[in-house]
Design a protein that fits this description.
about 325 residues; alpha/beta; elongated; 7-stranded mixed beta sheet; about 25% strand; 19 strands; 5-stranded parallel beta sheet; FAD/NAD(P)-binding domain
Length: about 325
Amino acid sequence: MAEHREVLIIGSGPAGLTAAIYAARANLTPLVIEGEPSSTSDQPGGQLMLTTEVENYPGFPEGIMGPELMQNFRSQAERFGATFLTQKVSRVDFSTSPFRIWIGDSNTEEPSYSADAVIVSTGARSVMLELPNEYELVGHGLSTCATCDGFFFRDQEIAVVGGGDSAMEEATFLSRFASKVTIIHRRDELRASKIMQERAFSNPKIDFLWNHEVVGYLGDSKLEGITVRDVNSGNESNINLSGLFIAIGHKPNTDIFINQLDLLDNGYIATQPDSSLTNIPGIFACGDVQDFTYRQAITAAGSGCMAAIDAERWLEEQTD
């Protein structure tokens, strides 16, 4: 028989763990299904497990390592009574109440858990180049977040991969710190909006390397450069640089929620304005799985707080 919980949280990044803290303090004894260890951002602790020093999270004037910050979140949730399961959810059924959640074999009829309320905080992952040694270099010269890491590259020569609005925005932001920013794009024209293109073209610190793709990283424990290939001639060459930012998009971890929750055209979970409410009463979403605008640890944590409060109030309404 499925184990029943009042509140079940799927995902354990800043959003999920903050939701766990608030739900636990409300005596809802939440179970957090935190995911399984891996080299990607959908592992326990989320994207901060792949970062090194975090300097922009309030309360840590000297900075804190990403994994340490997430362990602090987790310990705080445990202190108030949250429990954790280090596995992945394989299937959900939100069509009936209580909601049903499967772990492991998704083909079994009997679910692993049932819950009165579910908080979805599975996050999003940056689309990567999937090159050798890539995940090992994240946080060591390789980044997917200019807002998070741009400060570390003051007066250095760095590059951005991509041709859309995100890449132009990242490059423009990074030009505040770096001495030179090279945008590497595999085509000879950008996909970015006109205004974002003009902003990048007019920036004296930004250069463009057209018709090239990154095919390798130089350096074992720290990024020292990249290997690029001319997509027309096939010729390869090395570029020495200390930082590379990958800005080719993000993908929300919403595959198991297809046909279960309303998703936006970009795959993110649709939530009601100024809340964590989804289209199904009793299901709440928070963090990067529904936020494609800010994608910061602090905003994810804030939305996790919202989700827990929304869930608590909704559960109270069911007993009135």
